[in-house]
Amino acid sequence: MGIYVVHYGEIGLKGKNRDYFERTLVRNIARALKKRVSRRYSRIVIEDGAPEVGEALKFIPGIKYFARAKLVGLTIEAIKAAALQLAEAEGGEARSFKIAARRTDKNFPLDSIEINRTVGAHVQQGTGKAVSLEEPDLTIYIEIHGDEAYVYHEKTRGIGGLPVGTAGRVVSLFSGGIDSPVAAFMMMKRGCEVVLLHFFNETIHSPQVRRKLELLGEVLTKIQGEVKLYMIPFGGLQREIVRAVSPRYRMLVYRRIMMQIANGIAEAEGAKALVTGDSLAQVASQTLENLNVIYAASCYPVMAPLIGFDKEETIRLAQKIGTYEISIMPYADCCSFMIAPHPETRGKLGVIEALERNLNLDIQSAVKRAEVKLFGHSGEDP
């Protein structure tokens, strides 16, 4: 019978909370796959060996690695037969092999070393391949748990981290560029349920922007399962900032207003923090001085998971999770026209707060007028 065996890493260190993390991971896998998923002997098993199952498992946080395996009865003869069949079917041009057995059930009559020797001799006799313990061309893994055994030859790495939903909810500012989807992914990987927040300016480019956001939302559902996106109408607020604030300071004021609106969304969502795609000193608004001014507008902690990344690192991760090609699709950014030729790089909080006192903005109204889209949801959008 073809199955997938899922192994986790960090979850195993959670002590008394381990059961909660395991159950959450099982729930997330079952929701993503729409398959039967069960916990067995510190392993998670999906009773379906289809290739599309493996593709989905690559993107689920909490999984260290997984393998497509054969489930066999708990006898050494059944294990030997399965290992030989695998060596013949998957060995291909492999000239050497080794057996890597692990026995968690001490009632099984052979220990791991004896299983390696017994099964190895059977495979060698059946295939003529040489045994190599150091650098084998093929490794056959055997796991013995309870009343069943799993036999497989290839491990596929997952993205690791913690299951989504185990670390609380956050609101992630989401521009649709390269950085913000990766920042959202990084928080999902750490177990957060991420709510996306986009500031939307109605222009002739609106259909393209909406389509881009929808495509990115669909990609992120592979990781989180369901993703909620808030779109805040920002045109009126932008015009007020342009009216009252000189170009040199507009970006700082603009981003502080974003933080204040994000606070309102966080309160409505019961979130515990905000998330940005900031990378230190990547652009003028991301100097230490300016980040301090911007983050001071939030009553919630601000997480910046890409703060130490350079652009190439972010791009590689975007390519890995499948957001890069969408992120580079051309569109008119809602704040690009607000950037001065020589913007302030060492903002002072007192100066910016004084400028903001000249603004006539209705933050609560902007929050109430938000458009909400839910991706990966089987029912109607809210």
Plain-language structure description:
The protein is an alpha/beta fold. The protein folds into two domains: 2-157, 2-Layer Sandwich (VC0802-like), CATH 3.30.2130; 169-375, Rossmann fold (3-Layer(aba) Sandwich), CATH 3.40.50.620. Helix content is 40%, strand content 20%. The chain has helices at 18-33, 51-57, 76-90, 112-127, 179-189, 206-224, 235-244, 247-269, 288-295, 311-321, 324-327, 349-356, 363-368; strands spanning 2-7, 37-40, 43-46, 65-72, 96-103, 130-131, 138-145, 148-152, 156-157, 169-173, 193-200, 227-233, 273-275, 302-303, 371-375. Strands 1, 2, 3, 4, 5, 6, 7, 8 and 9 form a nine-stranded mixed sheet that branches. Strands 14-13-10-11-12-15 form a six-stranded mixed sheet, with helices on both faces. α5 (179-189) runs parallel beside α6 (206-224) and α8 crosses α9. The model has no long low-confidence stretch (mean pLDDT 90).
